[in-house]
Amino acid sequence: MTSSRQLTARSLIAGCLLGGAMSLSNLYTGLKIGWSFGVAITSGVLAWAIFAALFRLKWVREPFGLLENNAMQSVASSAGYMVGGGTVAAIPALMMLTNTSLPPLSMFAWISSIALLGVVMAIPMKQQMINVEQLRFPSGIAAAETLKALHGGTEGGRQSRLLGFGALAGIFVGFFREAKAGWIPWNIPEALPFSLGAPLLLIPEKLQPWVRGKLDAATLALLDAEPTLRGRPLTKYTFNLDTSIILIAAGAIMGWRAAWGMMLGAVVNYLVLVPVVFHYGIIPYGLGYKNISMWSVWFGSAVMLTSGLTSFAFQWRSVVAAMQSVAKAFGSEKAEDDPSEVPMSWFVIGVAITAPLVIAAEYFIFGIHPWLGVVSVILAFFIAIVACRVTGETDTTPSGALGKITQITFGVLDPGNVTTNLMTANVTGGVGLHAADLLTDLKSGYLLGANARQQFWAQLAGVFAGSLFVVPVWNVLVDGPQDFGEKWPAPAAQTWKGVALLLAEGFHKLHPSAQLALAIGASLGVVLVLVERRFPKWKPYIPSAAGVGLGFTTPASNTISMFIGALIALWLSRRDAKAEETLVPVSSGALAGESLTSVAVRLGTIGGPWLMGFFGK
């Protein structure tokens, strides 16, 4: 018999803890590779496994119910998406452009107010898009089916074991790669050069001198020789093999088309274009990712911007339908009398509370004029409608493209002001992301017969849980603007920075080679989308525009590892059509295991003298 209990104390606590932990995983991967991952299914499997074990040990009296797990997923998903409030995109971009940092309390108020407004904005859309139109919201369906399998059969044991295997591998790599303590006999190097002797770097450090002592000088010279390009080692062009398992797991999840598009972009950028522009002094401060990205970001950002806007333009029917559906929702009174639905009055009250909070945060934290803040909130409502509609139809939230629309809008309303440009776009993109996330969760609940009001409260709780995890850890991991580059590539932030800078300074201020790269990249973004739509059968063989753009804004070492992960996934899927059922949980476990371990080690090394001594720092 399935328990009808939903948002219980234990589901709330479990959701806050699991979602908070997953938010740190997304924070790490977002700063590292510009990618974040849904946490609903992973948290659902983990919660099922944890409470199943506790029930067997008789530490809890009742099994963890299906609807309890659904409520827990709502809390966890909301918390896990708190990096969408700008912590890996708009805020780092602002820091790089203004050479300033954001105080922790200001960051907490900022990302929390945006997320709360996003949750409230989703209320008018639920009744029409989910109940009436039955939009798919594929991730919501997948989460509901996963919960049914977990609570209704033997699938839960298999899923939890696969997650566990991946997590153990991630924990192993994360610890031995990040700790670097003197008492540890073996540390994994962060990267390996493309040389014959690279495997020697994987043996324990204390054994390396002994092994090298057994080899003659000619052999050592051969082993240590690195491939060069224009007289410089490939490592100078960021071409080496990153040992992080996160990147391989991310590649396995992201899919072959995006991964090979990234690899194409990386090869063209780092091996073809960068050597030429460096030779002519266009990159004046030496090679390395931080200096290279100052030039290559213009091509990469242009590809992603125009491809995103072009794809969005083809969804104009969805935009019109979204506006019409919300208008119908305002004319319906069904939810007011249904105790399981979120009434429209909650939307009115919620906006009356959260909108002034966002406008006040824009003014007091960033000095954005209140009238511009009002415009950003109004624009956020319409963008949230579109974001929810597109997510319901395609399972992809176009927060990047929608944010760029805001950047262009405020580039006209407040020209030259990068702060206004970035942070108003942060508002609209963040609101759209959190609104779409709530509707995805509500889709799961609708299929399972859950109470939407309880999921709404669960989502609000997740906002604060995620903020409480993300903000202090972000401020420990990031010391200041100088960290964005080699330490934290933050590819998404590089794109936001590029658009803001272009709108503020104008096209004419760029170096002629950057102007040419921008024009070519912008044209390529449009062409790739048009070709993809014209020849849909050839889509797998057409490089992903987003992938190509990321290849220009991500270190080549990251791209290589993700490409390897996608290649492994492709090979396994061709051998076994059901390989994805194994790959996704294992990869998700590896992502969570290594990222959380890496975060824990980095926190530990600066968490106090005794911990610093323990890790040998």
Produce the secondary structure layout.
Blueprint: H1 9-33, H2 40-56, H3 66-80, H4 90-98, H5 104-121, H6 123-132, H7 138-152, H8 155-178, E1 191-192, H9 208-213, H10 217-224, E2 228-229, E3 232-233, E4 241-242, H11 245-254, H12 256-279, H13 289-313, H14 316-330, H15 334-337, H16 344-366, H17 370-394, H18 399-413, H19 418-448, H20 452-477, H21 491-505, H22 512-534, H23 545-553, H24 556-575, H25 580-605, H26 609-614
Antiparallel strand pairs: 1-4, 2-3
Helix pairs in contact: 1-2, 1-3, 1-20, 1-25, 2-3, 2-7, 2-8, 3-19, 3-20, 4-19, 4-21, 5-16, 5-19, 5-20, 6-14, 6-19, 7-8, 7-19, 8-25, 11-24, 11-25, 12-23, 12-24, 13-18, 13-21, 13-22, 13-23, 14-17, 16-17, 17-18, 17-19, 18-19, 18-21, 19-20
Low-confidence stretches: 607-617
Approximate shape: globular
CA(first)-CA(last) distance: 54 Å
Write out the strand line-up for the largest beta sheet, numbering strands in chain order.
1-4
Mean pLDDT: 82
Strand content: under 5%
Helix content: over 70%
SSE pattern: HHHHHHHHEHHEEEHHHHHHHHHHHHHHHH
- Biggest sheet descriptor: 2 strands, antiparallel
User: How many E-type strands?
Assistant: 4
User: What radius of gyration results from the CA coordinates?
Assistant: 24 Å
Structural class: mainly alpha
Tally of alpha and pi helices: 26
